[in-house]
Amino acid sequence: MKIELLGGCEKDELEKRIQNIAAAGKLSRFPGNVIEVLESCNDYEENLKLVKRIIKMGHKSIIEHDYLVFALCDVTPIIEQTIIGYRLTSFTIKSRREVDFRKAGFYTPEFRNEAGEIHEKNEELKKEYNEHMKMLFNTYGEIVDRDVKVEDARFILPYSYHSNIIMGLNGRELEKMIIALRTGHLSKIPDLKELGDKLYEIVKEKVPYLVPNIKKQEVNYNTGFEYLEEIEKRPEIKILDKTNMISYTPNADDVVLESSIMYHYQCDKKTAKEILNKMVEKDKNAKEKMMYEIMHKEERRELEQVTFSFQIPISLSILTHLTRHRMHALLVPEFLPMWDMNNYLTPETVKVKANDLYDMAVKKNIEVKEKFKSLGVYEGDLVYFYLGNQMLNAVTTMNARNIQWVCRMRCCNKAQWQIRFIAKDIAKQVSSVAPLIGKGLGSTCVTDRYCGEGRECCGLIDALLEADKKNNN
Question: Are 55 and 48 within 8 A, CB to CB?
Fold first, then answer.
């Protein structure tokens, strides 16, 4: 693992970054305009003292003006899945849909016992682990060689493989990330702890205003699940058959339309309802026309007034396709305690062309993981046995605007098949309770007769436009 801060590292760059933050902290109480405030912050040491003092008082919004970009080289997807959950952080990640990963390399932990100390058989365990990981990568290569696309072959990849990421975030998010990775339950997983430590070492030199607060807040804490599990024994994990809507805003279509009338006319809800009814009396298609305008305007805040909650069965390989839509309230089970590894998915193309290789590798992986567990290996070191095919149930709540965005991206024929099925399921279930909103859900070629894929277009837009032309003649 190699972590590097990209830019902002030279002395003059560092001083300029601190100057900007200090000016942000000074602006609200300093006479004059923002340029004058900036010019007054001309002493680096004084600026740093000011920033630290303001942060200590709890006013952390000023450090959101410091934006940092990191290169994360050869980190595991365990790290990837964890940090993508930070919704104010930006990521670019090497695609497993496009790149052959058979030579990507993998992470090997120092195996610990249940007390968290180095296992007495650590070297033997590492040797067996490395041989096993090589077998899984070789199996991946053999599956690809059987003419299975890498986007389906990747379901056999272990969660030890090396991922590469460019990550951008502000100072406030960086502080939260370092504290979470270095303390509490996340620190039980070795490479998460290592990432937190490496980021902290960079922070001490390049983001010095964060150091006192990180030291102050770094305390071990429980997850909150301890109390829950004292009350009720953990049930058997059962993966859903398909996406399930678990709650929604009643009369969502009317709520959206009435909210639009309320803010446009500055009237109360009762009056808005009356106006909407009068519109329908004059034009039976008024609701449909109005909803179309709302769903195609630049700002679609009305759609944010209604929400829909779902429980979604999804594989680890595809989880990032959901997580990266960061403006929804996503709950993903933590990597620990370990899930039931018998809950896994086999892509249809693999079933046809390489099921023997795939099935053998999956069973062997569970066998080796169980052997390590029986030898008393610390659970945090077993997470690298997860495969991309591991299934889990995620829970999320989205507003209608976010659902529209997800469907525009994920209902597209170019989207990965599992997330496409999920998105279409979501669109179908929303349509069943909010049909007007539902009409605006789908890929852009269906809803807007537009495709932004250019040369890589699947061709559906041409068929739709031709059908429209025939219908209009």
Answer: no
440 phi/psi in degrees, rounded to 5: -100, 10
- Residues paired with 362 in a beta bridge: none
pLDDT of residue 121: 97
**Measured CA angle at 73 (ends 61, 338), to 5 deg:** 85
Instruction: With CA atoms as reference, report the closest residue to 49 among 212, 227, 276.
Output: 212
Residue 309, helix vs strand vs coil? strand
3-state SS class at 445? helix
pLDDT tens per residue, range 357-393: 999 999 999 999 999 999 999 999 999 999 999 999 9
Cβ-in-10-Å burial (0-12, 13-18, 19+) of 134 comes to exposed
Structure tokens at 415: 């989207």
DSSP states along 354-366: SHHHHHHHHHHHH
d(CA 400, CA 421): 18
Domains of the chain, by residue range, sit at 2-73+164-226, 250-304
How far apart CA 2 and CA 75 sit, in angstroms, is: 8
Taking residue 412's Cβ as centre, other Cβ atoms within 10 Å add up to 21
Q: Structure pTM?
A: 0.92
Contact 21, 62 (CB under 8 A): yes
Measured CA distances, 192 to 61, 115, 198, 407, 420 (Å): 26, 19, 10, 32, 30
